[in-house]
Amino acid sequence: MSDFEPCYFRGTGARKRSIGVDGFAFDDADGSVRLFIAEFGGGEEPETLTQTDAKSHFARLQAFCEEAVSGKLHREIEESNPAAGLAQLLFKERGAVTRFRLYLITDAEMSSRIRDWPESEISNIKAEFHIWDIVRFQRAFESRTGKDELEVDLQELVEGGVPCLGASVDSDEYLAYLCVIPGEALANIYDEYGSRLLEGNVRSFLSTKGRVNKGIRQTILTRPHMFFAFNNGIACTASKVDVVTGPSGLRITKASDLQIVNGGQTTASLAAAKRNDKAALDHVFVQMKLSVVPPERSGQVIPEISRCANSQNRVSDADFFSNHEFHRRIEQISRKLWAPAVGGAQHGTQWFYERARGQYLNEQSGLSLSDRKRFVLQHPRHQVIAKTDLAKYENAWRQLPHLVSQGAQKNFLSFSSYASDAWDKNEVQFNDEYFKRVVAKAILFRRTEQIVSKQRWYQGGYRANIVAYSISKLSRMIEVEAPGRALDFRSIWLRQALTPATETQIAKIAESVFDVIVNPAGGFQNITEWGKKELCWKRVAELEIPLDSTFYKELADHESDLQQKKDSAVDQKIEIGIEQQASVLQLGASYWKQIREFGAREGLLSPDDISILGLACLIPNKVPSEKQSSRLLQMKTRMESEGFPIRTIATGAS
């Protein structure tokens, strides 16, 4: 759950009931609320979680929900505690919440005597219960997808399974089926699994306010028998399916790791119409294209299927940014760049950019004990930067703290839009110097977290908001009060730390920021929601906080700062040219001869293309220039889009 927000609280409610919560996440896709409670033993050997233990933990979390929905709890919790904001939000949104999903997170091992936990209701809202013990976490970690397996038994929803036709696909990469699934079954699947079905989708449910979704709802309510004709259907992927042959043909009975990569809004609209409008879906049928992709190929193939399938509504480049070359470039730089050895250390270290979730642990999984220790020594755990972390650090410095406060996923999409446009305009700006500045911003952000936690005025809540706003305010102050100057990111990189003057300045800023955050403007009662508003940033931006003279003297000259960026961009351009030449040489003369034959046969080559390909066909006696190599790789991509077999090129990134 990328948008999970920590929210620790333990207390006593009505009738002396024990209440508690450790975190939450609102799921915009299906209107559910996920609430977490954790039990950590910390022993070398896992303890056993009994049925009685689990019941006790869930009872605390359930009691929290009940008292929050009643409207009493948020008045009794200290206002500065994030749990007060959560309780108030649950009370305010109680009519919109479709389902509570309660999770018990533990490092214990669940007893085999624990039976399935039946669904129940909390304040007339459906509630389901999930236990994640140490064994389940290990199973998810060891799975090739990095997720807990999602298996849908279609026979429980459609008698005999979903009818299908096997598509004639001559490929080792995947299998394909064309299906017709009843709207009732699709809505029930969505109600059961919610946004877990959309993890491979480029967007979640867009609500019924959009033009397309309004049309879907209207068809469901007024002309359900025409739904199949009017709707383009859905595209799905799975890692495995069970198919049986009966008198009426093929039927799919089970699907593992089912994902809706296109048609999430169609699916959610059906579920919403059934739930909110009490619509009967008996006459609604949906066409479904199902691609079965092995887990080891899913990371590469599913994003491609998603990109090609999404054509009903315009999907921005930001939606696909998780698989953008930007991330591969940053990952590649992080694997080669060494941070300075500081504090008397006799060896340098590297900052590890985690392009894919779990990458840091996965790279250690096959190592011996000694190699694992060497890996951790070279890549300390506190020097891991996830892609959502990078977006947080960048947007905080770009003076967008209200977006950072909206959660990891929404902030990431916001940053994606900016970075995707910046990449298209000038990709060489993302280079070694850029990565050093990302690390400097990571050091700034993380040290600010520590500074805030140590302040006397800090009451234990809303630290994430205070930190993001403090860094944005620092950026703003330098911009407005110190024209011609810039924060010395190079110095932070070299020191791998902030100067005392910088830390003093941040402490002063954070105290003033805290006062704005915990005192919302009129009309805002919930502090968490207040922190997500641009008006909150406007109030912070208007604060009058002087720059300390010592800190001011440490600022870098703006022109020198720009020159560092320009020099690194030039170096990156040279490096790209060398890499392109190396890739062309690696593919070899015979490959380029095949490209030339294919392109000529299909009529896809210009005279200039043929001339450059002729040079490539003479490798190694002739070596194309950097400019010619760039053209050759563009031709490779173009021919592959026209049906020429895809061939990957080995790179330095893992």
From TrEMBL:
Origin species, per record, is: Koribacter versatilis (strain Ellin345)
Q: Where is the Abortive infection phage resistance protein N-terminal domain?
A: 2-139
* InterPro entries to which the protein is assigned, alphabetical: AIPR_C (IPR018891), AIPR_N (IPR055101)
- The Abortive phage infection protein C-terminal domain covers 198-520
What is an example of a Pfam family matching this protein?
AIPR
What's this protein's name?
AIPR protein
